[in-house]
Write a structure and sequence with these properties.
The chain contains eleven helices and six strands. It has about 240 residues and is α/β, with parallel strands linked by helices.
């Protein structure tokens, strides 16, 4: 029988990285949060997928590049076969192309390995809560890479993003801004004082009208358009 997730507030996490010291560091950071429990570790993407099916974690933290089956392939397989598990990709500077591939592969969180420990915990909590989480450094790198043709290309992309956002309703723009800021549907609902079902409907409409497949891609557009709100108190 496949083990089922434990009841209670604990966020069950799987870590996958081919470097044991990196895994140890991630585990140590996550151990500082009493609501997070690392339930499995993998040294490659293939093993990560197997362990996700065995342990059913709420979040899988995957190195974007690993020998054999890498993080991107693993993210796609996890998204296809275990969609209840959210995926966070760990990346380093210079891996922009991999980040863009992962955006289309089902990953909903992106963190820089050299980032602050607090970002890792915030990212795990956000993805566990059903939100998309882009490290500010990752978002900046993605936007810059998409506009790698130079300052003019960057201005063009920002103008295009603003035009796409302007086509949304005022409420949809509010929701997109909060989504881009890493808030889940529940937190957006509380922030806007509406029911969560209303937020879900807005998010579905936003994804369709922007022509993107997931929250992470929508968050990139929010970053490009420059509509992110100040980080709310519960995110600090």
């Amino acid at each position: 029988m496949t083990p089922q997730p434990e009841e209670g507030p604990t966020i069950r996490v799987l870590i996958a990285d081919d470097e044991p010291m990196i895994r140890a560091g991630i585990r140590a950071v996550l151990a500082t949060d009493p609501d997070i429990a690392v339930v499995a570790e993998a040294g490659d993407g293939h093993q990560a997928v197997e362990l996700v099916h065995r342990h059913r974690p709420r979040v899988a933290v995957l190195d974007i590049r690993m020998p054999g089956t890498g993080g991107i392939e693993a993210a796609r397989e996890i998204h296809r076969t275990a969609p209840a598990t959210g995926v966070i990709m760990l990346t380093t500077f210079g891996e922009d192309e991999y980040i863009l591939q992962a955006l289309g592969g089902g990953a909903t969180g992106f963190l820089i390995k050299s980032g602050e420990p607090e970002e890792l915990i915030a990212g795990v909590r956000a993805v566990a809560d059903g939100a998309a989480y882009l490290s500010p450094k990752v978002a900046a790198r993605v936007v810059a890479h998409l506009a790698s043709g130079g300052a003019g290309a960057l201005a063009d992309r920002r103008t295009a993003a603003r035009e796409r956002v302007d086509a949304l309703t005022a409420r949809e723009r509010e929701v997109l801004a909060l989504l881009g800021g890493g808030l889940s549907n529940g937190r957006i609902a509380r922030r806007l004082q509406v029911v969560e079902g209303t937020v879900k409907a807005h998010v579905s409409s936003i994804l369709a009208r922007l022509g993107v497949e997931n929250r992470a891609a929508a968050a990139v557009i929010a970053h490009e358009a420059g509509i992110l709100p100040p980080r709310p108190p519960e995110q600090r």
